[in-house]
Amino acid sequence: MENPALLFQLPDDDTLYQALLDRDPAYEGFAFVGVKSTGVFCRLTCAARKPKRENSVFFSSIKGCVEAGFRACLRCRPLERAGVQEPWVQTLLEQLENNAERRWYEDDLIRLGLDPSTVRRAFKRYFGVTFLEMARLRRIGQGMQQLSSGESVIEAQISAGFDSDSGFRRAFSRLAGQPPSNLRGRELLKVDWLQTPIGVMLAVADAQVLHLLEFFDRPALASELQHLQKNSGSTIGFGRFAPIDQIEVELRSYFAGESVHFATPLAMNASPFTRTVWQALRAIPLGSTCSYAEVANQIGSPSAVRAVARANGANQISIVIACHRVIGADGSLTGYGGGLWRKRWLLEHERRTLQALLEKQAVA
Q1: Residue 213 belongs to what H/E stretch?
Q2: CATH 3.40.10.10-classified regions of the chain
Q3: Is 323 an active-site residue?
């Protein structure tokens, strides 16, 4: 029997967000919300405080939530509700939660007195993913959390339960939606890690331009990578092209407060309107911020505030295309894919960098 959640076609996000606000039980088991600001996913009927619209991502399955890097809400407990029929399901879920870095094998299930095929069918039916797959995804998520806190790649792969760099890279390949065997011969795009003071970033480039620069723990990263592969007709292999080397040098100067100039060529794969917005974001001066309405006025489309917001959210080249400099009309911080704490950090870093550069000029 197939999981009905996998067959359900979700309505548009506005409808789902209203259902979330209404705690509409009609979507129970068919739709889930991931909250960017907290990293958790919930049932739409969750009693917790509702997230802002820009922090909400909707999924048709628990598998989609887990693959995107969200963990289950401890209040509405979506995993428990989906698997209440067998007590051993809850036992396995608790073990995953308490020991996320553990590597599970079928022999471990047998030692617990469970039939691996029964476990596989039950988890597939309830969650759209087998128990062993869910355990692997939890390990990857554990590694992402380590990377986002600024730890080295080797520390992250140890935390994630991988024995080697190649094992960690294979896991990333699965996250990107392609088996390792498909990476040979079609590597028009290459990816590598870049260490920064506020977490590891992924850079994807071809031989000429940079296509993506995102924080590794961004919930939407998996879908962004798959979208990039689909549009480019290429898989993403591990390695470097010149634009990755260039952006690494420029980011190092940026975080050191030495330079704020980015000259790395960018792909800018988007509609003409979106590219116009991105150019406007790049033009926001260091140490300054703008509202969506101000950006809309600057590009000569004062009525296109919502379209500007969508273009801002579609940015896949963090920091360089300075979407972190866009704030609410009331001066409050708005959603940021890398996390609001990073947005606050970047704005404060740029304020201090500007102050230091002005003082240096005054002395000269």
Answers
A1: strand 210-215
A2: 4-138
A3: yes
Three-state SS at 169: helix
Task: State the DSSP code for 242.
Answer: H
Q: 272-363 maps to which CATH number? A: 1.10.10.10
Catalytic residue, from 42, 65, 73, 323: name it: 323
Length of the chain measured in residues: 364
78-122 pLDDT, tens digit each: 887 554 456 788 788 888 877 777 888 899 899 989 988 888 888
Identify whether the C-beta of residue 34 lies closer than 8 Å to the C-beta of residue 219.
yes
**What tens digit of pLDDT does each residue of 45-68 get?**
898 889 999 889 898 878 778 767
pTM for this structure?
0.53
Q: How confident is the model at residue 171 (pLDDT cuts 50, 70, 90)?
A: low
The segment(s) of the chain belonging to CATH 1.10.10.10 are: 272-363
Given CATH 3.40.10.10, say whether it is the number of domain 4-138. Answer: yes
Measuring CA to CA, which residue among 311, 310, 343 is closest to residue 53?
310
